[in-house]
Design brief:
With 483 residues, the protein is an alpha+beta fold. 37% of the residues lie in helices and 10% in strands. The chain starts with 8 loop residues before the first strand and ends with a helix.
Length: 483
């Protein structure tokens, strides 16, 4: 099957803070908003001592702007109307995802270092999450997302602090992801997790809201396929084991320290330079569920874990293996758990509930929030391509990559996230990610085509040129002083 035979869909959740003041309030403009086209929301004075309704006012104002902006800019909706969603049982789970929605998100707050900026505390900062409709993965849909984000950025004061995340849901329209594809996606993500994490900032790699599947999932704790099936009480057969070729299993991974990343991309980051996860033994022990071996103190190897996933016979088993006991992991397969997979929530009379049916997506929770429109859609495109590639590539090719990714954990100079992106044909997306990563690190890209950049100097250190300039100026001043 070719990737273009798959019809992928996606949705986004973007978390942020929006500035608000009350009518008649006059305060200085925080430096970060000097020259910004947007303005803070102005709420009626009557709401000044009513935090509930003032927050509601802010959300309603954002909804008004979105609803006006969406006119003539709609992408390709998975479900086009509420009538379609209500009268097709297979579409009920998308009834709440026909339009953009705005809600609060209490996990997002203004950290002290931003609060301390001049004039920031003169405004209220409302915590917001916007969710997109379920969209087909087309250029029209990506354009809709970019247009909405750009409009909000042009209209309001928006802050995306370290506490804010970008969540992307990958799916197949109204359908469940086919089990064979789901199993392959899980195996790919378990192996690639440490590499993918390189493109996310440290605060997202270490957040309690999106811990590593590779390091802390049930599978990482050496849960076997049979244990997962028993734990989930899932023993149905959706597909037989997908075993790897013995000739491939013994293949030596491919070192790439001298290999060009691709004909159309040159990274400013050398292989081995990018940081990934830091394994936390205490967290590993804390997240072990009952029944698993307490003497195990390191995560299960990538090749063995992939074999366990390939040997899974049904989606709930895969979901159990990829699960994180306390919350949702970086790659969230919970909709495929036994209690929800291919199940309908029902009313007391036994009928199917018309609201709140379970999603049918895999959720990617680790990207950092951003209000650069292209960055948001780039993460969406990367996720879509990774899932389509894992679903359609020959098994032996997938296994080769899994072996390479296994070796990266001890040979970081062999392969990094930019190798992965260019291998998947995502050169344009690699450039956008590189710009985002450079901006986060204070790096100025001088020539993108040649991979040249100016790096910031550690605190207290200056460049040799700067030191020489300072010395020359000092000597001139001294000479003039003693003349």
């Amino acid at each position: 099957m070719a990737a273009n035979e798959i019809r992928s869909s996606f949705g986004v959740e973007v978390e942020f803070l929006v500035g608000m003041r009350f009518a008649g309030q006059h305060s200085g403009t925080p430096r970060r908003f000097w020259g910004a086209s947007g303005r803070p929301i102005t709420a009626p004075v009557a709401l000044q001592h009513d935090p509930f309704n003032s927050s509601l006012f802010a959300r309603d104002r954002i909804s008004e702007v979105i609803n006006a902006a969406i006119q003539d800019h709609e992408g390709d909706r998975v479900v086009a109307s509420e009538h379609e969603a209500s009268h097709n049982p297979e579409s009920l789970h998308l009834k709440s995802y026909l339009q953009w929605h705005v809600k609060e998100d209490v996990s997002v707050y203004l950290p002290p270092e931003i609060q301390e900026e001049t004039d920031m505390n003169n405004y209220l900062w409302e915590n917001i999450e916007i969710t997109s409709p379920a969209l087909w993965a087309t250029e029209n849909s990506y354009a809709e997302v970019q247009h909405i984000i750009q409009t909000l950025s042009d209209t309001f004061w928006v802050v995306t602090p370290h506490t804010a995340g970008l969540h992307v849901h990958y799916g197949r329209g109204t359908d469940w992801i086919p089990f064979r594809d789901l199993r392959r996606i899980a195996a790919f993500l378990y192996a690639a997790d440490p590499i993918i994490a390189q493109m996310h900032p440290k605060h997202r790699r270490e957040t309690a809201y999106a811990p590593s599947n590779r390091l802390y999932s049930n599978l990482a704790h050496w849960m076997t396929t049979n244990q997962a099936s028993d734990q989930a009480n899932a023993h149905t057969l959706e597909a037989g084991p997908e075993l790897t070729d013995d000739s491939v299993s013994g293949r030596e991974p491919e070192p790439r320290p001298t290999r060009a990343r691709g004909p159309n991309f040159k990274s400013i980051f050398k292989r081995g330079m990018l940081e990934g996860y830091t394994f936390q033994p205490d967290l590993f022990n804390y997240t072990r569920i009952d029944g698993l071996d307490e003497n195990v103190n390191t995560p299960l190897s990538i090749p063995t874990a992939a074999q366990f996933l390939f040997a899974s016979l049904n989606a709930p088993t895969v979901s159990m293996l990829m699960a994180y006991d306390f919350y949702r992991a970086a790659y969230n397969f919970k909709p495929y758990a036994a209690r929800t997979y291919r199940q309908y929530r029902r009313a007391r009379d036994g009928g199917v509930l018309r609201q709140r049916q379970e999603k049918r997506t895999v959720e990617f929770r680790q990207p950092a929030s951003t209000f650069v429109p292209e960055e948001i859609t780039t993460h969406c495109k990367i996720i879509v391509q990774m899932c389509e590639w894992a679903s359609t590539v020959e098994l032996n090719e997938l296994w080769k990559l899994i072996l390479d990714l296994s070796q990266v954990e001890t040979n970081g100079e062999w392969y990094d996230v930019f190798d992965l992106l260019t291998d998947l044909g995502l050169n344009d997306e690699a450039r956008v990610v590189q710009r985002q990563m450079a901006n986060e690190r204070g790096i100025k890209i001088l020539n993108e085509e040649r991979g040249r950049a100016r790096w910031p100097h550690p605190p207290g250190q200056e460049s040799r040129a700067r030191q020489l300039f300072t010395t020359v100026v000092t000597n001139i001043v001294r000479a003039c002083t003693f003349q």
